Amino acid sequence: MNFQAVKSIYAFEMNRWRRTVLQSIVSPVISTSLYFVVFGAAIGSRIETVEGVSYGAFIVPGLMMLTLLQQSVSAASFGIYFPKFTGTIYEILSAPVSFFEIVLGYVGAAATKSIILGTIILITASLFVDLRIAHPFWMVAFLLLTAVTFSLLGFIIGIWADNFEKLQLVPLLIITPLVFLGGSFYSVDMLPPFWQGVTMFNPVLYLISGFRWSFYEVSDVSIVWSVAAIGMFLSLALGIVWWIFKTGYQLKS
Amino acid sequence: MHPVIAISSLSKRYDSGFEALKGVDLEIDRGEIFALLGPNGAGKTTLISIICGIVNPTGGSVSVDGHDILADYRAARSLIGLVPQELTTDQFESVFDTVSFSRGLFGKKPDPAYIEKVLTDLSLIDKRDNKLRELSGGMKRRVLIAKALSHEPKILFLDEPTAGVDVSLRKDMWEVIRKLRESGVTIILTTHYIEEAEEMADRIGIISGGRLLLVERKADLMRKLGIKQLRLELREPLSALPAELQGYDLTIEDDGKTLLYTFDREGERTRITSLLADLQSAGIRVRDLDTKQSTLEDIFVSLVKEQA
Ligand SMILES: Nc1ncnc2c1ncn2[C@@H]1O[C@H](COP(=O)(O)OP(=O)(O)OP(=O)(O)O)[C@@H](O)[C@H]1O
Ligand SMILES: [Mg+2]
Hints:
The complex is a heterodimer.
Chain A: H1 3-19, H2 21-47, E1 49-50, E2 53-54, H3 55-86, H4 89-93, H5 99-128, H6 136-160, H7 164-180, H8 193-199, H9 203-216, H10 223-247
Antiparallel strand pairs in A: 1-2
Chain B: E1 5-13, E2 19-28, E3 33-37, H1 44-52, E4 59-64, E5 67-68, H2 73-78, E6 80-83, H3 95-105, H4 112-121, H5 137-149, E7 155-159, H6 167-182, E8 186-191, H7 194-200, E9 203-208, E10 211-217, H8 218-224, E11 227-234, E12 250-253, E13 258-264, H9 272-281, E14 286-293, H10 296-307
Parallel strand pairs in B: 3-8, 3-9, 6-7, 7-8
Antiparallel strand pairs in B: 1-2, 1-4, 4-5, 9-10, 11-13, 11-14, 12-13
Bound molecules: adenosine-5'-triphosphate and magnesium ion.
Adenosine-5'-triphosphate binds at residues 14, 16, 18, 20, 38, 40-46, 85 of chain B.
């Protein structure tokens, strides 16, 4: 195991982030605060509570998930796309590193960044509403697993994308709608029956539901389903990444 | 002694269907400087990229110091430093950081003193804290060399190292390469500049259209194909060769103002003395003369033409 290489890639990615850390932190904090103003104050004044939780507090896990998913995907996809784009990937391909070490470096760094941002959102949110975390262990476990899984997804997107449009399209067209439609800002019970059924096909619903359960013990689907769902995503993502390195897809001709 | 790199029937067909390498066999000796010479698109970069793990081979095998490049890639790649043809750099990194990063990628513990030494050898030490985007093209090329040397490789690939590098810098670079060779590093370089191969290499391989046309020691190559030409500038133009001179390999050039005599330097007799005597008896007067030895360039051009 070439730990030195993992460390180097990880440190390289974290350094790149540190150079623009202010904008990386400021923008999610501002958008979270805006969500609170719009959803919390405007809608919250009409809804008051959802399943016994104040609306402001109810949306916090969803907001964290939104940030976690977006940031994991964008950090990891950009991290691996950039050396492909500039050509510096030659160095990684010619180094004595295994695919596992490369993934560990890039995905580890992306997951770290999104976990830091998720934590910042949590802290920001606690300024607006009273938070309580019923199952801290599960909360951290969901946080970690989601960050890793979606960083892997971002890594896959970064390798698949051969231009900047594709790199931005997937997060914009797929991730964000799935999060919004996955019950970030409402309970699925509030939807008409048909849409409830449709929502059940949204994989992100299971993540948000499980995550919210770890806070307030209320959930749209059983916690078992949530854990199974994240396990499935993780295995799927790992499988695809393994295949990518096996075949050299978009990396080696 | 075993060759440090053994390439056998290596072939590469790109996804486009293009066959960039058509069964290349080559052995590189430990500690030599090997120059790979060939026109654009010959397959030089493809060959190097396969050995370094950037391109997948379609057939054949390569071993580096006895380690197969696929089965035992870690051991094989640890020995190799690569300076790519394209100037690809992380524009926002500093020189020192980017060179240290390369060292780490190859699994070596940080060693700032060694990195500083490499930067000093390549006259980059003044720029150690500059961002790469602040450097000129020639400086970036040297940074790529520093990155390749950062992990103390035993084999160094230089893919057109002197493209875009000025003359004085080129000299410095050769100095660095000579020193590396003295310390036992094997060097494989590609170039379009034949003088470079002529000046630096121990052995030369000529590749064209994905095939190695020839691999020779430079000295042998020069000797074997060491044709010389004697150029005679005439006082009065000549329209046809007189009978006395029919026995020589002569051509008339410049509207008859120049006679060109081609002979084999290695031959028993060059017949220059008798040619001069025959010229005199034919009443042809010579104003000036000089001799020219065919260069690698001539050899190269004729080989590549022959193949086409
Ligand atoms: N990724 C690729 N897909 C398809 N064809 C390729 C690819 N890379 C290279 N080729 C083709 O393979 C041939 C050999 O290319 P290569 O880069 O090895 O040449 P080279 O000898 O290094 O040339 P140069 O002196 O211009 O650098 C060329 O005809 C090139 O067009
Ligand atoms: Mg080339």
